């Protein structure tokens, strides 16, 4: 009698909140889009310190320049700007202001002109990182360094067409996975003022929120706003909050979930049909199986420096 052991399906593991920690799990590059910067400066400072390569996409350089200028004015005239050592500015440069350009030229930051109009500055920044940074650093630190994760700062407030363009780029720029469920060109995250968003490609995914003793889960049997666990790490800046959305951007998908208040099994989701928004996370690990590529967006909870003034750069 031949007995065959059941083989567990391969899955992709995600720990998105670690990009905000003192010790991120994976190296990442940082892209700053020409969008409002609405989070506390402590969050941007942490991401800046964690990133191994930093690119401003055209007018994103203006946002950084204004943030440096305003921060120094708010602290003291002798304070050092918090966002130095920008690696480059890329794009068609139609939004780069003269004062911002002069500032970054003085800082000896390369300004790279990509004039073609068939791609956005978001896309140009991602292509630049994948084609130049990885090529320059390949085989220097790790023999098999073929990819790098990319964190994009891009708020979704304001014009709907701009927001849709950002989500479109997030979808199209996330390259496919290999046989081991590894993302070939690295993972792409979008950080906005209230959420972290990324693509789950067809397959099985497990999204970890935090370690159990540090997680903020929500008791769906009692008050939906009550925390199960207290925060134990005062160095934490950002956690995943309770709300989650799972959205099919391109085509309908059949999804199954485990770990949400309203779990589904073999459920079709599509625009014009049903989509899962404003669901609640009730486990520290959420499992999602999807037949097609989908977008997941997780609400952020800013834990540290609650009294810190938000730095909105228009």
TrEMBL record:
Signal peptide: none annotated. Its EC number is 2.7.6.2. One of its GO terms (molecular function) is thiamine diphosphokinase activity. One of its GO terms (biological process) is thiamine metabolic process. Keywords: ATP-binding, Kinase, Nucleotide-binding, Transferase. It catalyses: thiamine + ATP = thiamine diphosphate + AMP + H(+). It holds the Pfam family TPK_catalytic. InterPro entries: Thi_PPkinase, Thiamin_pyrophosphokinase_euk, Thiamin_PyroPKinase_B1-bd, TPK_B1-bd_sf, TPK_catalytic, TPK_catalytic_sf. The keyword ATP-binding applies. Pathway: Cofactor biosynthesis; thiamine diphosphate biosynthesis; thiamine diphosphate from thiamine: step 1/1. Belongs to the thiamine pyrophosphokinase family. PANTHER family: THIAMIN PYROPHOSPHOKINASE, THIAMIN PYROPHOSPHOKINASE 1. NCBIfam families: thi_PPkinase. This is Thiamine pyrophosphokinase. It comes from Uncinula necator (Grape powdery mildew).
């Amino acid at each position: 009698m031949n007995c065959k052991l059941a083989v567990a399906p391969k899955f992709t593991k995600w720990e998105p909140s670690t990009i905000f920690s003192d010790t991120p799990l994976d190296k990442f590059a940082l892209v700053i889009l020409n969008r409002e910067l609405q989070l506390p400066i402590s969050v941007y400072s942490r991401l800046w310190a964690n990133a191994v390569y930093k690119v401003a996409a055209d007018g994103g350089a203006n946002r950084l320049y204004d943030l440096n200028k305003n921060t120094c004015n708010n602290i003291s005239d002798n304070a050092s700007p918090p966002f130095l050592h920008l690696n480059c500015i890329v794009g068609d440069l139609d939004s780069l202001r003269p004062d911002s350009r002069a500032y970054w030229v003085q800082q000896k930051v390369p300004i790279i002109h990509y004039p073609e109009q068939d791609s956005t500055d978001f896309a140009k920044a991602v292509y630049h990182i994948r084609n130049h940074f990885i090529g320059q650093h390949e085989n220097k630190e790790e023999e098999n360094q073929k990819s790098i994760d990319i964190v994009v700062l891009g708020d979704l407030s304001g014009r709907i067409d701009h927001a849709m363009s950002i989500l479109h780029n997030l979808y199209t720029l996330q390259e496919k996975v290999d046989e081991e469920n590894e993302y070939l060109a690295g993972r792409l995250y979008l950080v906005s003022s209230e959420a972290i968003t990324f693509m789950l490609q067809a397959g099985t995914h497990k999204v970890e929120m935090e370690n159990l003793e540090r997680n903020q889960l929500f008791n769906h049997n009692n008050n939906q706003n009550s925390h199960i666990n207290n925060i134990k790490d005062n160095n934490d800046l950002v956690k995943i909050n309770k709300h989650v959305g799972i959205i099919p951007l391109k085509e309908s998908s059949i999804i199954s979930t485990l770990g949400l208040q309203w779990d589904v099994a073999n459920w079709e989701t599509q625009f014009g049909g049903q989509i899962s928004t404003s669901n609640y996370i009730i486990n520290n690990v959420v499992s999602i199986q999807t037949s097609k590529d989908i977008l997941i967006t997780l609400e952020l909870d800013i834990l540290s420096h609650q009294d810190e003034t938000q730095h909105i750069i228009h």
